[in-house]
Write a structure and sequence with these properties.
Layout lengths: L1 H38 L2 E11 L5 E2 L5 E5 L2 E6 L16 E6 L2 E8 L2 E9 L4 E9 L3 E8 L5 E7 L2
Antiparallel strand pairs: 1-2, 1-3, 1-10, 3-4, 4-5, 6-7, 7-8, 8-9, 9-10
Organism: Alloprevotella rava
Protein name: DUF4251 domain-containing protein
Pfam families: DUF4251
Length: 158
């Protein structure tokens, strides 16, 4: 009876060890994929939540995104906040495709890459600060000149 109990416990511990090893291998694979996409400057971020400066957070689902392809930024993000100066064509969304004025990628922490992007549209000048984690999750902070700042979170499309 004691031998059977020890055998069962050993089998469970071995199974958990294998499961943990597979999780570690998968995490390493995701991390490698994330770094490859960031270094290639070719990635899409799917937004789950927006966090306006003067309102409560809102779940927005996965239809909104931010895409980097080479030197071009495609922004399709909802916006909720105060607009300080509006042009005739300005809408509420941060919806544009524009060449980036600057793109700087820095590895500040062990599991996080920070990307700074500056882009100018006909309506405003935007600074995007992205913290992209090795597991594919991200935080995005957008600082427009003529609007309140806003932040988002979501996942990198792998």
């Amino acid at each position: 009876m004691l031998i059977a109990l020890v055998s069962v416990l050993t089998a469970c511990a071995t199974a958990q060890g294998i499961s943990g090893q597979k999780q570690a291998e998968k995490a390493e694979q995701v991390s490698t994929t994330v770094q490859r996409m960031l270094n290639a400057k070719h990635f899409t971020l799917s937004v789950n939540n927006m966090h306006p400066a003067s309102a409560s957070s809102k779940y927005v689902g996965g239809e909104f995104f931010l895409e980097v392809k080479g030197d071009t930024l495609r922004s399709y993000l909802p916006y909720f906040g105060t607009v300080y100066r509006s042009s005739y064509n300005a809408g509420n969304a941060l919806d544009f495709e524009q060449k980036m004025e600057s793109f700087q990628q820095v590895r500040k922490k062990k599991n996080c890459t920070t990307i700074y992007i500056s882009v100018r549209t006909a309506e405003d000048f935007f600074k995007y600060t992205l913290n992209i984690f090795d597991n594919g999750r991200f935080d995005l902070y957008v600082q427009p000149v003529h609007r309140q700042p806003i932040s988002y979170d979501g996942e990198l499309k792998l």
